[in-house]
Fold this protein.
Amino acid sequence: MDLIANLATGFSAALTFTNLGLCLIGVVLGTAIGVLPGIGPIATIAMLLPLTYGAPPLGALIMLAGIYYGAQYGGSTTAILVNMPGETASVVTCIDGYKMAQNGRAGAALSIAAIGSFVAGCVGTLVVAAFAPALAALSFHFLSPEYFSLMLFGLVASVVLAHGSIMKAVAMVFLGLLFGLVGTDVQSGVVRYAFGVTQLYDGIDFVPLSIGLFGIAEIMRNLDSPTAREGIRHRVGTLWPTREEISRSWPAVLRGTGLGSILGILPGGGSVLGSFGSYVLEKRISKHPEAFGNGAVEGVAGPEAANNAGAQTSFIPLLTLGVPSNPVMAIMVGALMIQGIAPGTAVINDHPTLFWGLVASMWIGNLMLVIANLPLVGVWVKLLQVPYRILFPIIIVLCCIGIYVTQMSSTMIVFAVGFAVLGYLFSKLDCEVAPFILAFVLGPLMEENLRRSMVLSDGDPTVFLSRPISLALILASVGLFVLIALPHVRSTRQQAFQDED
Amino acid sequence: MLGRSIATFIAGLGTTAVILATSLTIPAQAQDYPTRPVRVITGYPAGGGGDMLIRHYATGLETETGQRYIVENRPGANGKIATDAVIAASPDGYTLFIFGSAGVAGNLFLLKEPGYDPTTDLITAATLTASGFFLTVGADSPFENMKALMDGLKSKSGTIKYGASTNVSIAASEEFLRAADLKATRVAYKTMGDAVRDVAAGQTDFLIADAAFAMAQAKEGRLRILAATTPERMPSAPEVPIMIEEGLADFIFTPRVFAWFPKDTPADIVEKTAAQLREIAASEETAKFLELNGAVPSLTASSVEAADVLKQDIEMWKRVTAAAGLEAQ
Amino acid sequence: MEVGNPKDFIAGTVFAGFGIAAIIFGHGYSVGSAENMGPGYFPLLIGIGLILMGVIIVAKSVRARREAIAAIRLQPQFFILGAILFFGLSIERFGLVAAIIGATVIGSLAAGKPRWAELLILCLALATSSVVLFVYLIGQPIPVWPR
């Protein structure tokens, strides 16, 4: 079939010495970047752009792409080891991944993340190869009302992320929505809640927010316990996942891959939705939902798979429509334009070697990443053995540099301190950060699309119900809300009855 | 013998010391400039069309001077973050600002407290390019040309919706509406990709997009280009009529990219760089590059002339922001 | 007499506080209508939502069982946050090396009495490797030395 022939062309192009070398450089660099707090693929790829001027187009793309999905691997490493999400999508990995590390299962978490990501990457690459144009066409049906309904569903589902009080989770969702408001309102151009600080005009930057809320707050918590003087040592169990962990993980990986592949295609928010949608799904269908939040391996396997699958499929809008689905893809547009290639459907037909070579290199890159990362698991776990009094200043310094470099601004560092205090406060009050973060990311998209849908429909709210996809998502939201609220109502009533007795 | 060696050594040391001392106190002469890497600050985010243009010029300057020109992307606040960084930079000639006037001039009216005056806080070295914009409709739109569009829109004036993402596209659209004497509702998007999606689906009536992107999407079969906002037909799209031909003599919109230095930068450095930039802008390679990117060279003979062009842009933005009802934030 | 749950009581107050702040600071944004929502519409809704949730949580906390708040030691926190603030305030004026050394020293104090030899090695190692990694290898335009 054509696909096999095309893949053959692709592999023969990607397996040259130069391209293999560029792939290796890309993924290694990407992983390193992903591990460093703050510095992300965007900054790195932007910096390396000039190097691609003289390079052959395929090689350049292979390297840049490698940096991108390599960063996903690195980002999960810090999420698991020190509760710091390398990227927005890794936030979900922090929840159970870090708990696994605290339970002594860091090695298992890292291995499963790597292997799950590899499987997802392979499948994701296949999806790109086989279904790119078809999926791109599907995205045409996803207009503002559908985005709104999807985000609404996401927000309702984010309450499921919480393993504690539902009320507080809902409140955290509202709080996340509030913080998401900061910045320039898309539709009206009004700047909200910026208090004159120019760095806030485009919204609160995710880097100081996540580093402060997760990473630094975690250090603060650790130093609260008296054992800090001796140093915190995470128990280290076996490096490899147990049979039970593996058998629980692989279905989650498959489900996550499916979810992530599809959601990764949607420009804006797709990758976050994929990873946390997987988490919500796993928690809902699990026989032991109470394990989630305490180190459930499915909570790492699924989201990591979704993450990486999404990273592969997020290339689809770029390669087929010429529309970048996230800021990294936007830079890829630039890289292509420098080479004189206008991204779009023409790429597949006019530059088949480029397209298929890139697809083949994604598979190769994922293979390289899993081969490189698995032995590293032992190294990372050894790092955890370093006395905490030496480890945490290193983390602090790396965080500071990473935050500063984001916008070359010390204001960002002050923000991070504020968020660190907030994160510390929340943990003392048992308020979970995950719903907050998800609302922070999804809220603005939801508001933007809600208001735009209303403007486009001339103020007619039935537009959300008259379009089939949107209707389905709204029904799902309502259904999920009822599912969440009902047991709570029942248990409150039960408690009321018990109190009366 | 020993005495002589010592004397020579001391003389050598002394000479070196004098040379070092004088080179530390005398500011860089234009003949030697640049003697170390230069920062090229821009407000465009990495990878976008604007950024590619900046990098093209940076590479050109590198070839000319043999020194590195490092592009620093400082996006945010419609260019204010980049502008602030440049104004705060030391005026030794090693900070260059290449950016569209939209951010620098526009912010004077879009922000309540811009905190700067580009005519005094910056030295305008040169204008480089002018970008063309295309008015587009969805590929399935019933309007085949500008006349059909105008007639169609006149009949539904008041319920027209247009898409826009950047402040520049908003400005272009408002200028169009003013020239065509129409009223429309603005539908704002965060990215051009989203805006194209909706105009292609027929949700909005028209979209004014930068030429490069519009051409790419037209090739995809998602958009139909109706007219260009340039004073002459664009070399990269000679089949596209210009607004003037379509009866809108009043509507020319070609936002320009400028090169600036912080104020108090030595004049000879400014002039040297301006001359180099003009040379690059006029070259064959640039012409080809600009064609791909939907821009045309727009050169001014001197920095004085460039400063005047900036003043014109400021006036234009003043008018546009008022007409578009964009309140200062 | 039921003992209140201080965790939830404080949490509820914090939420309500944010809600009130949202409404106060957002009063200038035009709300618009349901058909044509303005920039102030969502801030208002969210503010109300936060106040509502805050009140509910506080109300429930009054009757709930007491859950002690986990230990808070303020001293280490001051050092950690102080270290970060020091970095932020000094990096542009004094450069990366000074910022790193200062942050490391201040931060280490959070874990109690520092072991000076160890600290010195840590500072030097961190400073050198950071400069090599971020400034030379990655090429970020961070000032290394004092201006």
Summary: The beta strands of chain A are 183-184, 191-192. Residues 106-138 of chain A form the longest helix (33 residues). DSSP finds 21 helices and two strands in chain A. Chain A touches chain C through 66 residues (CB under 8 Å).
